[in-house]
Known about the structure:
This protein is α/β, with parallel strands linked by helices. The protein folds into two domains: 2-162 and 210-296, Vaccinia Virus protein VP39 (Rossmann fold, 3-Layer(aba) Sandwich), CATH 3.40.50; 167-200, no CATH class. It contains 13 helices and seven strands. The relative contact order is 0.14.
Amino acid sequence: MKKSEENIRNCYSTWGETYYNDYYSDNSAYPPVHLDLILKKLTGHKGGNLLDIGCGPASMLRHFKDLEFQLFGFDLTPEMVAECKKVMSGLDPSNFWVGSVLNKSDFFRSPNSPEKYDASTCIGVLPHIPEKFDSMVIRNIKDSLNPGGLAIIEARNELFALFTMNRYSGDFFENKLLPKSHIKAELGDEKFTEICSKINKQFRMDLPKIRKGKANEPGYDEILSRTHNPFELKEHFVKAGFREVKTLFYHFHATPPMLKETLGEKYNKISMALEKNPEDWRGYFMASAFLTIGIAA
C-alpha cells in the first residue's frame, strides 16, 4: 500500500494548479454534474462540521463555502493540499492537511477537528484503494461521523464496461463475468486464453487510449485506478452501519464513447438530458460514475 500511495502522490503532484480547470470549469470536457447532486444533498442536511476526504485543490470545498458547515479536508498529495489552502484563504489553514483515508487518526489532524463530523464527502479517492481495503475505508468514514451524519462517496462504475464495447468490456468479461477458475479447471489455461481472445475480437481493445502522466510522473491509467460495482458498494455501506443507502448515477453517455463523433456536437446535449434522473436504471450501464449516499446509524 505504501508503494501504491507513493504512485498516487507522484501522479497528482503536478495537478494542483490545473486540476480544477481541467475537470470542474467551463473548459472541462463534460460539466461536473455530480457537484449539483452533492450540493443538493448537503443543502438538505443539517449543518455542523463537514470533512472532505481527498479534498484535492478544494475542488468541492470551494463550492461549500456558502453552506452552513465548518469545513475541513485532507488529501494524500501535499501539492494538492497546498493549493487547497490557497483557494480556501480566509479559513484557518490548519483545517486542511495531508492524510490517508486508510488511517483513522488522519481524519482528525486539525487542532479544530470535532470529535465527530456531521457530513463527509469522498470524491476521486475510492478508485485508488486496493479492493481488500474498501470495507476499511467505508468503516473509517462511518466511524468519523456522528449518528445521523451524511456520507457521500464517489466511484467509477464497473458496469459501464457492459456498454463501452472497448478494452474495459474485454477486461470485465475476463476478470469479472466469466467463471475463470471453473473454465481453467475443466479445460486448462490455454482454452481460457482462447476464449478471452475470441471475446476481445468483438470489442475495440485499442480504446480508450492509456492516460499518461504530464511529466515524469505516472498517469492516471498507470496507477491503481479501479472501478466499483454499485451493488457491491451499497452492500459495503449497509454492512458498515449506514442506513437509507442510495445510488445516484452521473456522467451518462448517450452512446458508447467510441460513437461520440457520430452524434457530433449534440453528444453532450443528449447525454446531459439523461442527467435529470440520477436514479434512472440505465445509469447502471450508461453512466461512468456514481455516488453512494448513506446516513450513519
